[in-house]
């Protein structure tokens, strides 16, 4: 039914990416509240946040199987509803065991919804016959920005955390109702084949996705620390690096579909990986603030369309079913986000953050050298 209405499919896909961005932002705003309510120190908070990652990594490969049996609509909706419901008690809880269980469920919801909507996005792009994945992913960034700005404004007006979450839940319900008819609900003909490990070229797609996510997470987790520490002599506010990076990435994704259509996937991947590699090199070696911020700009622009191009390539391979392959590279990519902070921290502990960021430049050059795999 909904396959014959391409516009509705596309708008619903954008809406769900936007909603997941809002949900992520709402959780980000709740983290300091959770820490205060439970009286957690930084180490305990880190362990609590690990529950989110564990829930997501467990759910992502399972979500590929669920999509193959029940379609994207049921899995994406179920994941978002679970995440939205769990946020309210998380804003009120004080018990650490209950918080851990709630954060784990939040991770399951995030992982399920994100995997399902990426499977739908690949399918919708196939049906449209033109690049669309970068634009879809841009709506996640837009949702994240709006989901962060709204709660900050409400907090300044005196709203309590639970009231802010309830406002977000109301928005979730309204937007989800409008998106519902355009979510694919066709299971695979054989009902799915269960959890599948990556095979063949899907391993390489997963590795490249993990590197891209690792680089993005590095700027978020370590960019401010680097600017205030080893680059502290420049006297620049720590938040500037991520602000420039995030703005460049959003701009790159909003224009990415046009760029991919014009230049092709291989060139976009090669140029993107090279730009990010140069960007990390500038962050490490730049002698002044403009070049330093220019490095963050290049990282954002370079990374912007790598993951969408890899999802496109995953949807076109014939080694695995699309649902299983997309779930596999999403899981590996998310594992890169989880492992990234610890890996870079270990490198920094053994040497310095400068060396860690230099290592990322090498990894992004590796991505560029493997661009032809997306043909």
UniProtKB/TrEMBL annotation:
From which source organism is this entry? Asaia krungthepensis NRIC 0535
Q: How does it sit in the membrane?
A: Multi-pass membrane protein
Name of the protein described by the UniProt record: Major facilitator superfamily transporter
* Coiled coil segments of this chain: none
Q: Where are the transmembrane segments?
A: 46-67, 74-92, 98-117, 138-157, 163-184, 196-214, 234-254, 266-285, 291-311, 323-344, 350-369
Subcellular locations according to the entry: Membrane
Chief subcellular site? Answer: membrane
Keywords from UniProt, A to Z, are:
Membrane, Transmembrane, Transmembrane helix
Q: Name the Gene3D superfamilies for this protein.
A: MFS general substrate transporter like domains
